[in-house]
């Protein structure tokens, strides 16, 4: 993905970040995905059967497992550079009208989210998936008080960020949800890291969903 496409994402999402910094971080994430040789327990990739997981929705073959491994390694690498308390990558399942968590780091985050009106009011990933817009909440308590979001689960974080993973035409493929313990937990450096991951994950999520050339 060229720096032009990075600039397009930043402009579309209303982010005033240095495109060059995002492009470098995106390249680093892609390198991890393409060159990483980590040994990852299959239960981490496919799930353990205790909650909704990739094995429930995707064919358990080597190709899919490699994609899941790429997603895990990219999230893990970005997570290690961040100060977030939790992060998760969701894939959008159009036929099920929901978001499935493929990978997570830190404190547990919901495994399966609906996309209906009630879910959109309570969960930022659902809102981001439906609207295609990045949501940055610098003060979760204030958003709760104002009614911008609802739900007791928001008590677990002080700030949060939900980023769409999209094709060039704007089609949403998935969502990254990141949460910090404190308010104002996402400075420009942190934002650039997670935006870079959102850009890097477009390729593996496209492959996972079989989006095809007609959608690009």
From TrEMBL:
It comes from the Bacteria. The lineage of its organism: Bacteria, Pseudomonadati, Pseudomonadota, Betaproteobacteria, Neisseriales. It comes from Neisseria elongata. InterPro entries: GAF-like_dom_sf. This is Uncharacterized protein.
């Amino acid at each position: 993905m060229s720096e032009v496409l990075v600039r397009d994402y930043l402009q579309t999402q209303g982010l005033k970040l240095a495109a060059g910094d995002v492009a470098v971080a995106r390249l680093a994430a892609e390198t991890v995905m393409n060159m990483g040789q980590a040994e990852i327990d299959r239960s981490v990739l496919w799930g353990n059967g205790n909650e909704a997981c990739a094995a429930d929705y995707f064919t358990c073959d080597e190709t899919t497992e490699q994609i899941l491994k790429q997603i895990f390694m990219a999230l893990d690498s970005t997570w290690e550079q961040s100060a977030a308390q939790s992060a998760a990558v969701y894939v959008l399942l159009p036929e099920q009208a929901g978001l499935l968590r493929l990978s997570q780091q830190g404190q547990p985050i919901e495994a399966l989210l609906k996309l209906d009106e009630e879910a959109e009011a309570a969960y930022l990933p659902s809102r981001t998936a439906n609207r295609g817009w990045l949501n940055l909440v610098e003060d979760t308590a204030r958003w709760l008080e104002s009614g911008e979001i609802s739900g007791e689960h928001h008590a677990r974080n002080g700030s949060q960020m939900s980023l769409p993973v999209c094709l060039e035409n704007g089609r949403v493929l998935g969502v990254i949800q990141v949460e910090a313990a404190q308010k104002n937990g996402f400075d420009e450096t942190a934002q650039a890291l997670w935006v870079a991951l959102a850009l890097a994950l477009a390729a593996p999520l496209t492959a996972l969903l079989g989006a095809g050339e007609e959608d690009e």
